[in-house]
Amino acid sequence: MGEWILFGISALLLxxxxxxMLSAVIGQYRFQYVLNRMHAASMGDSMGLGLVxxxxxxxxxxxxxxxxxxxxxxxxxxxxxxxGHLIARLELATDSQYQxxxxxxxx
Amino acid sequence: xxxxxxxxxxxxxxxxVSWENPLDQQLTAATTDEPxxxxxxxxxxxxxIAEAQHExxxxxxxxxxxxxxxxxxxxxxxxxxxxxxxxxxxxxxxxCLVIVTFLMTTVVQLPPFGAVDNPTNNEVAQRYLEKGLxxxxxxxxxxxxILDYRAFDTFGExxxxxxxxxxxxxxxxxxxxxxxxxxxxxxxxxxxxxxxEPKNDAILQMxxxxxxxxxxxxxxxxxxxxHLGPGGGFSGGAVMGAGLxxxxxxxxxxxxxxxxxxxxxxxxxxxxLMTYALLKSYSFFCGANHLESGIPLGTPGAILSSGLILPxxxxxxMIVMCTMYAFYTLFxxxxx
Lengths: 107, 336
Fold this sequence. Notes:
The complex is a heterodimer of chains A (about 110) and B (about 325).
Chain A: H1 2-30, H2 34-59, H3 63-94
Chain B: H1 2-15, H2 22-32, H3 36-42, H4 44-109, H5 123-136, H6 141-149, H7 151-172, H8 184-196, H9 202-224, H10 233-256, H11 262-288, H12 309-333
């Protein structure tokens, strides 16, 4: 019984994560502006990947494997937002027309 | 007049053929023999009539030329482009079909995957698998193969990397190199780079501070454990080079210049290649003359084992790391 509950939770998390990944891919092609596309892509990277690896953690009883999965999540969550931040910064630096697409709140 | 002249010029420019219109030249010659004001003062009525006639002639001429040019353009724009497109597509499809036919006939004639009597299952692979551990001392049979049995090939690959770095250096390095005074081109590239680089990005620096030591450590592990498991000089060197590039991106050239300059690149690559060449020459010399090389193989699985494979892996890793880093810096601002 316990196995089945674990399997159910794992499958649910996996399907949710894959759905998020799919929506990220669709968003990549549907959105027109760079920052919108970035928003969509980061969904798949952070939440989607996190949920998929969490489901693998739940499904696996092995301690070392869980540690490795958590390391993968840690590194992806560290690197992907940094890369996204740099892309956004580059967009702001190179596109002089960015105010057509968004509102800037002046501090 | 002015307006029409500009129209004529525009038409010529449109077709990108600057031909001279003979009638236009005549008209210009007739009117510029005497200044307009002089003619007008002497015979105002005749001048007006002549001008009107000229104007009319010009008008008809221009409209005719315009018509011709525009029909030509529309033909090139619509029909000609369509034909060109169709021919292009047809050629592309035929080309693809020919290639696909060749490849498919080859695939059909291939022996079945994993069959015992395949040509790949010959005495070479058998020898590697049966005697490899005993002869090279490497648990990772791939490392034993590329750095012991086929070390000469790997030496060639490292040299290819070195030569590639040299050619990029020749092509992209800016100005005369002197350590004290940078040339104007170098200064310009420096300014350009400073203008475009993400300057002191706090988030990137924080991430780099956490990640760079881990990446470098992992790269070293991959290089040093190449004979014990998956890894080796090429992959480990690529990881270390990526770590250096990340460090450079986060902290800029001034910080990396403290430990990695053009001089470092030269010496590290040169020494690594020379070490590789000398070590392997020694072992080839001994092997060819049936001498004992005297290099202990050690116990398989220990970190200090498998003879020359470990130092050769380190050499290859150094070369790959330096090449990657040098490529990045050369493409970025033409120098280190």
